[in-house]
Every structure is written in C-alpha cells, then in structure tokens.
Amino acid sequence: SYLRQFKRLDIDLVYTYMKLQFSGSNLAQELEGNHLPGVPDHSASLQLSYAISKSTSLQYQRLFRGSLFADDVNVHEVPSLWLDHLTVSRQIQWGQTSSRLAVGVQNLANVSYADNIRINAFGGRFYESGLPRQFFLSLSASL
C-alpha cells in the first residue's frame, strides 16, 4: 500500500499478491497444487483525488483484478480485468447541514467482464456479466 499526499493531489495505490493453492494430505490427489478458485493471484487499485477548489474535488479510480479460476480443478479461467471510474463531487454547507453532491461514471471504458463468480457452479454457469458503463448522481447529508 502506498499513500502520498501533495498540496492538491492525493495518490492511493494498493497492490495484493496471494498465491493460494490446495495442499494437505486430506485432499484428492488431483487438487494438490491447484489454485484456490475465486481468488486472483494479483489485484490492485489506484485512486487519484484532486482538489479543484476547497469544496470541489475530482476522483479517478483504476481497478485491476487478475485472472482467477472458477472451479477447483482449474479448468475454467476467468480473464483479468481493468475498470476505470471517474467522480466529481462538491461539498455544500446549508446552515448546520453538510452535504456532498457527486456525479460520476463507473466502468468508464464500458469494458465487458465477468462478475459474480460462482465457484464450482452446476452446468458451467460460473459467472454473470459485469455491469456496463453507468452514470450516477448522489447526494449525501450529515445532520
């Protein structure tokens, strides 16, 4: 994990490496050494937050999920993916009430990807398609 703060820019970078494999004397011989399904070896995220002004900020997030297996025998591999998100938000003060208005885009490049992985699913139905590009508007308030 790496966090760096500049005057108007924050950088948050997280990388994870996990090589999880089946092992042990109680396992069937064919699973020994196989990757644990549903867990990628590599994953990462990068978030950049830029303060446009005291009350307005721009956030960019890039997510990476490495390839993973959807079954114990490691036959069905789910490809790796990159997703990008962009958000502009503004802090609004109304008397004692503090609010944040945000507008953004998730899956900026409209990437097609597999999501909701079902480990060892019956009939080879291991995953659903991930969500396409989405635009959103949100308002949160603290009373």
Fill in the keyword field for this structure.
143 residues, mainly beta, 7-stranded antiparallel sheet, two-stranded antiparallel sheet, 11 strands
The rough form would be described as elongated
Order of helices and strands: EEEEEEEEEEE
The number of helical elements comes to: 0
The largest sheet has its strands arranged as 1-2-3-4-7-8-11
- Assembly level: single chain
Commentary on this structure:
By secondary structure, the chain is mainly beta. The chain is 0% helix and 52% strand. It is built from no helices and 11 strands. The strands form 3 sheets. The protein has a 7-stranded antiparallel β-sheet with strand order 1-2-3-4-7-8-11, with no helix packed on it. The protein has a two-stranded antiparallel sheet with strand order 5-6. It has a two-stranded antiparallel sheet with strand order 9-10. The chain starts with a strand and ends with a strand.
